[in-house]
Amino acid sequence: MTQETHESLLEVRNISKRFPGVLALDNVHMKLHPAQILAVIGENGAGKSTLMKILGGVLTPDAGQILLYNKQVTIDSVATATKLGIALIHPRATFSRTVRIHKVQKAIIIS
Ligand SMILES: Nc1ncnc2c1ncn2[C@@H]1O[C@H](COP(=O)(O)OP(=O)(O)O)[C@@H](O)[C@H]1O
Ligand SMILES: [Mg+2]
Fold this sequence. Notes:
Rossmann fold, four-stranded antiparallel sheet, two-stranded parallel sheet, globular, binds adenosine-5'-diphosphate, binds magnesium ion
């Protein structure tokens, strides 16, 4: 069940990312609200992992902004993402083994 409030938890504005020969993300917008579960769906190669890696600090975007609680942040490393409370969890990882539930309450988990 998801719940949407007017408050923005995490927002992506105009994010673009190019790899040699491919524009993986072209001006992407996304908004996540507190307590909301958001599914990003798309065919293989649509850019889902690239966007999640940018939010997790694995990749840096070529353009665009990331806002956390309406404040612009720079996520330049996994360590920075972790400090901001963003965790990128590989889809094949076992969730219960990776993150203890009591630690999840204030985190943004991307899987
Ligand atoms: N490290 C990389 N180097 C070059 N091209 C990449 C790299 N990562 C992703 N791509 C390309 O970017 C596009 C988006 O990939 P990806 O984000 O993995 O899509 P999805 O997760 O939606 O399947 C694809 O064309 C993919 O081949
Ligand atoms: Mg993927």
